[in-house]
Amino acid sequence: MGKNENKYIIEPNTAEIARLIDQDHIFTTAMGGLFPEDLEPDIPKARSLLNLGCGPGEWESNVAYQYPNLTITGVDIDKDIVKYAQALADVRTLANLVYEVMDIKRGLSFDDNAFDIVNGRLLFAFMDKESWPKLLAECYRVVKPGGVVLLAEYEVTVSNSTVLQFLYSRLYKLLLDQDRTYSVDRRSVGICHMLPRLLKDAGFTEVVSRPFLIDASYGSPCISLAARILKLA
Ligand SMILES: C[S@@+](CC[C@H](N)C(=O)[O-])C[C@H]1O[C@@H](n2cnc3c(N)ncnc32)[C@H](O)[C@@H]1O
Question: Which residues form a coiled coil (predicted)?
Fold first, then answer.
C-alpha cells in the first residue's frame, strides 16, 4: 500500500453503510446521548458544528433535528457515503445539514475559527501515528477560541466471544503492520491513552476525558456487529 493511500480498514459498500448505522446506535446509546451530559446546556448556544469522518450521517442528522439553530457540516472521504448522508438529510428536510467529500488526513478545507464544535468519533479506523498530530492541529485551527473539540475513540475490551477476540487479534496486527497503533504491547489500540498528550501538544489547554463502556459479551449487539465485520473483511 502506497504511503498516501487511505487506510480505512473496511471497503465502503452498502453492507458497510448498514454496519455504520448500527454502530452509531450502539455508540450513541453507550455514550448516554448525542453529547456529553455536562456539555448539553451549552449546545443551544453553539451556531456551527463540523463532524469529521461522518459516515452515513445518523449522528449529525439527529443533532440537526434536535438543534435546528446549529449549522452542521459533515465530511467524509467516500463520495457514496456522502451522497447517502445528504439524501438522508434531504428526506428528513434538515436544511441546517450539509456534506462535503474530504480526506481529513490531508487537512480541513475550512477557514480559521470556522466552528463552535468539532466532533470526531472512531477515527482510529483510518488514522495513523503521523496523521493524528496534523489532524489535531487542523482541529485547533478551525475551532473558534472557546469552542470545543469532541473526540470519542476506542480502546478494545476483553470479551467471552471467540468472534470478537479473533477480530481484535487481527485488528492489532493490521494496525501494527501499518504503524498506526500507539500500543506498547500489541494488545491495544492505544489512542485513548495518547489523546490527552496529543491534544495538549496541539495547543488545547483544557483537556477532559470521559470513559464509557460498551458491553461486548457473547450475545450482545456489539458482537453481531463484529461478526458482520468479519464477513465484510
Ligand atoms: C472511521 S468510521 C467513523 C464513523 C462515524 N464517525 C461514527 O462515529 O459512526 C468510518 C467512516 O470514516 C470514513 N473515512 C475513512 N477514511 C477517511 C478519511 N481519510 N477522511 C475522512 N473520512 C474517512 C469512511 O468513509 C467511513 O464513512
Answer: none
Q: How many folded domains does the chain comprise?
A: 1
The reply to whether 1 falls in a domain is no
pLDDT at 229 over 80: no
- 233 has pLDDT over 60: no
- Ligand 1 centroid to residue 53 C-alpha, Å: 4
Please check whether residue 2 lies inside any domain of the structure.
no
Instruction: Indicate which CATH number applies to the domain containing 193.
Output: 3.40.50.150
pLDDT digits (tens, 9 = 90+) for 44-82: 999 999 999 999 999 999 999 999 999 999 999 999 999
**Alpha-carbon span 230 to 228, nearest angstrom:** 5
